Automatic annotation (TrEMBL), chain A:
<dbReference type="InterPro" id="IPR003593">
    <property type="entry name" value="AAA+_ATPase"/>
</dbReference>
<dbReference type="InterPro" id="IPR017871">
    <property type="entry name" value="ABC_transporter-like_CS"/>
</dbReference>
<dbReference type="GO" id="GO:0016887">
    <property type="term" value="F:ATP hydrolysis activity"/>
</dbReference>
<dbReference type="GO" id="GO:0005524">
    <property type="term" value="F:ATP binding"/>
</dbReference>
<feature type="domain" description="ABC transporter">
    <location>
        <begin position="6"/>
        <end position="242"/>
    </location>
</feature>
<dbReference type="InterPro" id="IPR003439">
    <property type="entry name" value="ABC_transporter-like_ATP-bd"/>
</dbReference>
<dbReference type="InterPro" id="IPR027417">
    <property type="entry name" value="P-loop_NTPase"/>
</dbReference>
<keyword id="KW-0067">ATP-binding</keyword>
<protein>
    <submittedName>
        <fullName>ABC transporter ATP-binding protein</fullName>
    </submittedName>
</protein>
<keyword id="KW-0547">Nucleotide-binding</keyword>
<dbReference type="Pfam" id="PF00005">
    <property type="entry name" value="ABC_tran"/>
</dbReference>
<keyword id="KW-0813">Transport</keyword>
């Protein structure tokens, strides 16, 4: 077992002719929470999609537990994905299924658990995200915050080693956003998982990260602890934390 | 001028790209067929949705098709041939041509469009990506049940539609054309052969597979948000209607060679 669970080495990626990632390198040590921050459209979600094998790099390598994820065959990739969970920005709940069916889908497809055991697991995971007793509700009946929580319950249903969070607090009020931040910390502590969070929410960055990386124009331009982030003189970091349009980070409309 | 050639080139290349993309997706769906038992729950749900859900619409369209067919056949031939041939024409035309084709056109509007819209929405709301990240193959989980259900349920729907259309034609013959029941069934028995029924069923089987595959392709490959979903839905209906009519011609040539 490697001490670094996920690593991107010299990754280049262009989408629609536009370079999104250029020579991006980062590593995620096991048991830690890496927060990648950056402006909207900076390519943060593209990094997550590389980590879960939804996109492959044009150049460079993606390593999961020391093995090339971008070169895995479909069956191997599926095995790797069973060890990960992902919370999408829009939650991406299956809207034709109940909450229980959403959370249990992975268990049904990949385990031999019986109905009772699956129901018990679903109940436990929903309780872990503070949503006990909503098994039979449809996603359309839930608020934005509840959808995120159900998305998280679904992501942790298979007890993954690595959880990827794509903008977990975007579109939520500050109180619900803070509750989601707490949930990310609780999930890490309770299940001992490694987490990668991409966000532009400074509160999330400072609260949940054990390491913070700032992404700008396809590269990581700062990496450090939240304390180092707060005390650095790096003009890019200062501009981001202070939320100024003027500065070295260029704003393109 | 250069820009014009560049645009034409782009379109041609785009066309080849989509053709290749569709072929690969179709091959993947075919390759998943041996695993159909693993998605039996989803398949049964789709069979009910595609099959049972389409029955009311097919019943209405088939009823009126059969009735119109009887009225117009009578108008065209009543002065030249005995009335029992009206029954023969109604039944034969329904079984070998109008039943499969009209039902397929109706189903492409109802089922093909709904498959494209549903999968397209799942694509743009990242639900298909979510399935991938959960190590659930979307081709097996979403496309295979829809394809298989289209393939299997279409002959059932067409059989039902043909029975309703013949019943409509029978009602018109009896009530409007004042033909006797005996004459109607005699006409039907005399010129409708088992081969006609097999041909109609084969057509419907092929149309069913086509409709669901086209809907699956456009839905699965949707991009660019709500507008993309609308475009995928429209394209699936247009492509299905064209393919049904084109395939119908080639199947007619193949199944009824003497007609050529």
């Amino acid at each position: 077992m490697q001490s670094v669970i996920m690593e991107l080495a010299g990754v280049y990626k262009s989408l629609g002719g536009q370079p999104v990632l250029s020579d991006l390198s980062l590593s995620v040590p096991r048991g830690e929470t890496l927060v990648i921050m950056g402006r909207s459209g900076a390519g943060k979600s593209v990094i997550l999609k590389h980590m879960v094998g939804l996109l492959n790099p044009d150049r460079g390598a993606v390593l999961f537990d020391g093995r090339r994820l971008d070169r895995m065959r479909r069956a191997e990739l599926q095995q790797a994905r069973k060890r990960m969970g992902m919370l999408f920005q829009s939650s991406a709940l299956f809207d034709s299924m109940t909450v229980a069916e959403n959370v249990s889908l992975g268990l049904r497809k990949h385990t031999r658990l019986g109905e009772k055991e699956i129901a018990a697991k679903v109940e436990a995971k929903l309780a872990a995200v503070g949503l006990a007793g909503i098994e039979q509700k449809m996603p359309a009946e839930l608020s934005g915050g509840m959808r995120k929580r159900v998305g998280l319950a679904r992501a942790i249903a298979m007890d993954p080693e690595l959880i990827l969070y794509d903008e977990p607090t975007t579109g939520l009020d500050p109180i619900t956003a803070d509750a989601i931040n707490n949930l990310i910390i609780e999930t890490r502590d309770k299940f001992g998982v490694t987490s990668v969070v991409v966000t532009h929410d400074v509160n999330t960055v400072l609260k949940v990260g054990s390491t913070v990386a700032l992404l700008n124009e396809g590269k990581i331009i700062f990496s450090g602890t939240p304390a180092e982030l707060k005390s650095t003189d790096n003009p890019y970091v200062r501009q981001f934390l202070e939320g100024r349009a003027e500065g070295p980070i260029k704003v393109h409309f | 001028m250069l820009e014009l050639f560049s645009r034409i080139g782009e379109r041609v290349l785009g066309g080849f790209y989509r053709l290749g993309e569709a072929t690969l997706l179709i091959l993947r769906v075919f390759g998943e067929l041996p695993h159909i038992w693993r998605v039996h729950r989803e398949t049964v749900a789709q069979m009910i949705r595609i099959g049972i859900g389409s029955m009311p619409l097919v019943a209405v369209t088939s009823l009126f098709t059969g009735m119109v067919l009887a009225v117009q056949t009578s108008y065209q031939i009543e002065e030249y041939v005995p009335e029992i041939f009206i029954a023969s024409a109604v039944c034969k035309a329904t079984i070998i041509e109008l039943g499969p084709v009209i039902t397929a056109l109706v189903i492409s509007g109802r089922v093909g469009a709904s498959i494209a819209a549903e999968l397209g929405t799942m694509r743009v709301t990242e639900q298909i990506d979510a399935l991938e990240t959960m190590a659930v193959d979307p081709v097996r989980f979403l496309l295979l049940p829809r394809f298989f259900s289209g393939l299997v349920m279409m002959p059932v729907i067409v059989t039902f539609g043909c029975l309703i259309a013949i019943a409509g034609g029978y009602a018109v013959c009896l009530l409007y054309l004042e033909m006797s029941s005996v004459a109607f069934f005699q006409g039907m028995r005399q010129f409708v052969y088992p081969y006609d029924i097999y041909s109609g069923l084969l057509k419907s089987f092929i149309f069913g597979g086509t409709i669901s595959l086209v809907g699956c392709y456009y839905g699965y490959c949707t991009s660019q948000g709500a507008e993309g979903v609308g475009r995928a839905t429209t394209q699936s209906v247009v492509t299905n209607c064209l393919l049904i009519l084109i395939f119908d011609y080639f199947l007619a040539m193949l199944l009824f060679p003497t007609a050529g």
